[in-house]
Amino acid sequence: MIMELRQLEYFIAVAEEENFTRAAERVHISQSGISAQVRQLERDLGAALIDRSGRKASLTTAGTAALEHARAVLASAQAVRRAVDEVNGMIRGRIVVGMVTACTVSPLFDALTRFHLAHPGVEITLTEDHSDRLIERVRAGATDLALIGVSGTTPQGLDTLPIVSERLVAAVPLGHPLAERPLVTLADISMYPIVCMPEGTGIRTVFDRACAAKGIHPDIALQASAPSAIADLAIRGLGIAILSESMGASQAGRLEALVIDDVETPTGLALIWTATKSPALRELLPHCRQSFTAPQPGQVLPSVG
Known about the structure:
alpha/beta, Arc Repressor Mutant, subunit A, D-Maltodextrin-Binding Protein, domain 2, 3 domains, 6-stranded mixed beta sheet, 5-stranded mixed beta sheet, disordered C terminus
């Protein structure tokens, strides 16, 4: 009897997805291919592992007994690969990197490019989400590294690399009644509709907490994830845009960015990861530090999201 590691991987995928189509997508082969490999494994073992009679692919009694051992075999094989790769100075596997939605992150892309050139055997997965969900994913181990928006302090229990720290501004059209003021307060801007980022982003958290501390209940008229969309809505007179200083500065000539005087907590960006680092993450972090702490001439650090 000859069992191949890929057959065990396909069996595990079907068992966990409870569906041959989803399992095939997960391991990047055709549905007919994964079905044939699982059937071959069943023939080799002399028992059906998957019950195909229902609407979902469920484990038989033999399949349930085999699943834990199949996982252990794959884990052992991966451990062998990691041990050999570390001796040979090679890094393989997969790394999942998250970034806050609609944030301009050229330095992160530069770091990923250098990492890929140095370690082409590592598969890189890049995802976007709101900061609070990215924090949860890093803590759960589903994401290795994430670029998030922070509101004053960085998340507890995680290693961090601060990137940017800026104050909030209220961005108004050039002809707006507040446009001539050197600065504004929360009370000033709460008299008008507000255009802001969604809850869960660093900027929105800073703004909401500042308003709550002063008992102010702003009218959040519109929300958008992209700073450019928030600016465009404000230019059209649909509300005052709540942005970071760099975001406001990028709209010079279109909007007047006014510092909100009574919001002292900064908003910012930070890279976060857990203390338990995979070999791939250990290799990626120096590239990130180089990109974010020593930008090249002409390189612009990302706007705060």
